[in-house]
Design brief:
With 718 residues, the chain is an alpha/beta fold. 28% of the residues lie in helices and 24% in strands. The protein has 18 helices and 30 strands.
Length: 718
């Protein structure tokens, strides 16, 4: 390092290099006037890049006469707070990922480019238009008529309509065509939303709120553990209302994009404040404006999926992580962070309580459902020796028929989309397989295509077997699309809705579909995991879970844990109001210990059994893992790289290396895949070893022939 006469700026740039870069400030500006967290436009190579200031330095590895000047400062004030800069620097070290790429991940896409900040925009609203003389008015009692009634006093924003009339968008489209409504823009400051009082808290809920409230202004990781439907959201809302009363912000993380619309409606109904929403379905401009509203303190509540944990908070008061065990909180590409763990790190840095819906840390328990709601009754449907109607047992069909006859709703849950997971020939045993993954292609009948759910490859459905010419290819197994077809045949007069990735691709499609179910009418719902979490349908009294056995036998040591969580979550959709609920699980393994334990003794007892097995096997949480993955067109390249990396590993006592070995899915998207697993009983041993070893791995000549990554605390060994 060389001492400098004037300070330089230490800058992070989003490149795959484990280093920072030094720049002189732009001409005419002193380095010390540019705070950490500010964006710069800097020369890099032959181009221009965005850099983020990390701090100032009095020395540099670069010769003073070779230091380059930053081109210009892009922000009047730092975009990233000092706390967030420090947290991201810690995360880069912990997850062994280049700091510049970590910093870039924290920014919305439009703020990663060399451009000025987006200007604040008003909020879209709907207003009644002067009805044409010949306009056809909607029938009374319809959603369109209800929408016109809501708009009678004046315009309402889209977010206010989301809260007050689920499924209003399809009605608005119809009314626009008739010239009865128009879209306009209103300034956000003119849009107060009157809060709606919630139900009174139960004794358990009030005790939980009071206990957590004692930690206001200090870091405290608190688990709000409770049965599904026990009213945890009401506890969140009460705690957030207290934070708002203190002039603070609340960050609420939810596990999936499909959960956001209903959560947002509920929060808007109850809190008279500006709410920012952050998820991957937003346009770049929308996301940037919401992010900036949080950073500037203009948004009091921020609700978002995984990446929302990286938003700057001007006046943090509380962080809530709903369904903290959900696998979608773990990023699986690039920088592989876990949002739950980062939420805890940020809570400690900010000095605020972090409320988790799960089973770690200090625990508060909600053992009952509020009001008259009752826990659903479970029943195992033994499929052994039974004939099925496209995946449904006679007992299941009888239960569905009785549910609908009572005017109630039923959910048939199948965590496999498409029509059938396999399309096969019964003459020669050929089946459609992905040429790049060696895995069966899923038949999507509605789209008339075969699709690989691993790499995304698609192809047309063959008119005949390409191997023997047989024209009668048969689907094997059942996806949501096939179950939808079966239920439509069995119950042709019943409203039927399918909710999965295919039916919700269009923006607001999930909200519109869900809105059709809010009415107190009989209906059938076919859905995947999108429906397993957080959705409240008061008239839903029966849940059928199809394909339970797939989670019982898996190479993933977490499979049984996830199955138990899924059963509890999906079951929680039934009987959430005054009507009793029932849950039917179709299985060929009714005596399986996991199923018996979950149904008879509950999730907590099942979790203790799984933890004992993990302890005996030396698996997390009784061990800490890191996974070095490699992929290449040729298996010889992945093997050479991983063996070279293994040879570099002069592992200290307490760190074990397992492998190299093929990945559980050894071929994907035409690439050969292999991995090396590192395990340690103590986290400190693993993290003392990783930095130097990864630095040496980066310089291996074999590394140039593969794509490799390091995954710290992996949740998926594939």
């Amino acid at each position: 390092m060389r001492a400098l006469s004037t300070p330089v700026l230490r800058v992070a740039i989003a490149v795959p290099l484990a280093q920072t870069f030094d720049y002189l400030p732009p001409r005419g500006i002193e380095a010390r006037t540019i705070a950490a967290g500010t964006r710069l436009a800097v020369p890099f190579g032959r181009g221009e890049r965005v850099g983020i200031v990390l701090g100032h330095a009095e020395d540099s590895v670069i010769e003073p006469d070779k230091l380059r000047c930053a081109l210009r400062v892009l922000d009047d004030a730092p975009l990233l707070s000092a706390e967030l800069v420090q947290t991201l620097a810690w995360a880069a070290r912990y997850y062994q990922h280049p700091l510049g790429e970590v910093m870039e991940t924290a920014l919305p896409a439009s703020l990663r480019r060399v451009q000025a900040l987006p200007t604040p925009a008003g909020e879209r609203a709907l207003v009644r238009a002067s009805a044409p003389v010949d306009a056809e008015l909607p029938r009374k009692g319809s959603r369109a008529a209800a929408l016109l009634d809501l708009l009678a006093p004046g315009p309402l924003t889209y977010t206010a309509l989301d809260a007050r009339l689920p499924g209003w968008r399809s009605a608005a489209t119809n009314l626009r065509k008739r010239g009865l409504v128009l879209t306009t823009t209103l300034q956000t400051r003119l849009l107060p939303v009157a809060p709606i009082a919630g139900p009174p808290l139960s004794e358990e809920q009030r005790a939980a709120v009071d206990a957590i409230a004692t930690h206001a202004g200090e870091f405290a990781p608190v688990v709000l553990e409770g049965i599904t439907g026990s009213g945890k959201t009401e506890v969140y809302l009460a705690l957030i209302a207290q934070a708002l009363a203190r002039g603070e912000q609340a960050l609420v993380l939810v596990p999936e994009i499909g959960l956001t619309p209903q959560t947002l409606r509920r929060f808007r109904e109850r809190l008279a404040c500006r709410i920012a929403v952050l998820h991957s379905g937003l346009a770049d401009g929308e996301r940037a404006r919401a992010w900036l509203a949080a950073a500037r303190g203009e948004a009091q509540v921020i609700i978002g999926t995984r990446s929302a944990v990286l938003v700057p908070l001007a006046r943090a008061g509380i962080i809530v992580v709903d369904e903290e065990h959900d696998a979608s909180y773990k990023q699986q590409e690039g920088w592989r962070y876990h949002a739950r763990d980062l939420a805890l790190v940020r809570g400690k840095a900010l000095g605020v309580p972090v409320v988790l819906d799960g089973a770690r840390y200090s625990r508060l328990h909600l053992s009952s459902r509020p009001g008259a709601a009752r826990v659903p009754r479970f029943q195992l449907i033994d499929l052994r020796g039974k004939s099925l109607q496209h995946g449904l047992a006679d007992t299941t069909i009888t239960a569905l028929r009785a549910c609908l006859a009572r005017g109630e709703q039923a959910l048939v849950f199948r965590n496999r989309r498409g029509y059938a997971p396999v399309l096969a020939c019964h003459v020669c045993a050929w089946h459609a397989a992905c040429a790049r993954c060696d895995k069966p292609l899923t038949w999507h009948r509605g789209a008339a295509q075969l699709a690989c759910h691993h790499c995304g490859a698609q192809q047309r459905v063959p008119s005949a077997c390409p191997q023997c010419g047989n024209a009668h290819l048969a689907p094997l197994g059942h996806g949501t699309e096939r179950l939808e077809e079966t239920l439509a045949q069995l119950f042709p007069q019943t409203s039927l809705v399918r909710i999965d990735r295919e039916t919700t691709r269009r923006k607001h499609a999930f909200d519109d579909l869900f809105g059709t179910l809010a009415e107190d009418k009989p209906a059938l719902i076919v859905g995947t995991q999108m429906l397993a979490k957080g959705h409240d349908l008061p008239n839903l009294t029966l849940v059928v879970i199809v394909g339970v056995d797939e989670g019982l036998y898996s190479v993933d040591f977490r499979a049984e844990e996830r199955l138990a969580q899924l059963i509890v979550q999906v079951a929680g959709r039934a009987g959430r109001a005054r009507k009793p609920g029932a849950v039917l699980l179709q299985t060929h393994e009714p005596e399986h210990p996991l199923l018996q334990t979950v149904l008879r003794q509950g999730y907590a007892v099942a979790a203790m059994r799984l933890l004992r097995e993990r302890s005996e096997a030396g698996l997390p949480p009784y061990a800490h893992l890191a996974l070095l993955r490699a992929q290449a067109a040729q298996a010889t390249h992945t093997d050479a790289f991983l063996h070279a990396a293994c040879a570099l590993a002069d592992a200290p006592q307490g760190v074990a290396l397992l492998g190299p070995m093929p990945a559980p899915m050894p071929r994907r998207a035409g690439m050969q895949r292999a991995q090396l697993l590192l395990s340690a009983e103590e986290r400190t041993h693993l993290h003392a070893f990783l930095p130097d070893w990864i630095a040496r791995v980066r310089h291996l000549s074999e590394a140039r022939r593969v794509r490799w990554s390091i995954d710290v605390d992996p949740i998926d060994l594939y």
